[in-house]
Specification:
Length: 154
């Protein structure tokens, strides 16, 4: 199992309060009542350092966002959408005269591609999304509701 159990948190949590991502550590952390409930190994965009600047740069955004919808029919094993770009991202992109990009998700493996669960979250391969194992995605699907805040840190 790739999830690391939380510390002293009741096992029957229905939903978490916040998703915290630590890009440098390749960790996605679920918080419940301010405490770690679960942690997962993640893969990032192909150019993981720094905040996403524009479409196609391979970077994963940094900042405060929301999980705003879920896609059960994704081209990946389930996906949770992150509401990037936010107002600040759009203003920055407008000043730089670039397209900020979008369609940033937390997702599992590509559909129809048999990969080892460890590979999906051990190599930075996405276009800017956060990838987890399909097993982790099942837990995220259940525990992260629409409207949950997500903070993505460097």
């Amino acid at each position: 199992m790739f999830a690391i159990q939380g510390y002293g948190i009741e096992p029957d949590v229905v939903a978490v309060d916040k998703v915290l991502v630590k890009k440098a550590q390749r960790k996605l952390i679920l918080l419940h009542n301010g405490k770690i409930y679960r942690q997962y190994r993640i893969a990032l965009g192909s150019a993981p350092q720094g905040h996403k600047q524009q479409m196609g740069d391979g970077r994963t955004p940094e900042g405060h966002y929301l999980i705003d919808y879920r896609n059960p029919n994704s081209q990946f094993y389930r996906s949770l959408h992150i509401n990037y770009p936010n107002v600040n991202d759009k203003q920055r992109a407008r000043r730089q005269r670039v397209n900020p990009g979008g369609q940033i998700f937390i997702h599992g493996s590509p559909n129809g591609l048999a990969v080892k669960a460890t590979w999906n979250s051990s190599v930075d391969w996405t276009l800017g999304c956060l990838a987890v194992s399909n097993q982790a995605m099942d837990e995220l699907w259940r525990l992260v509701k629409n409207g949950t805040p997500i903070e993505i840190m460097p």
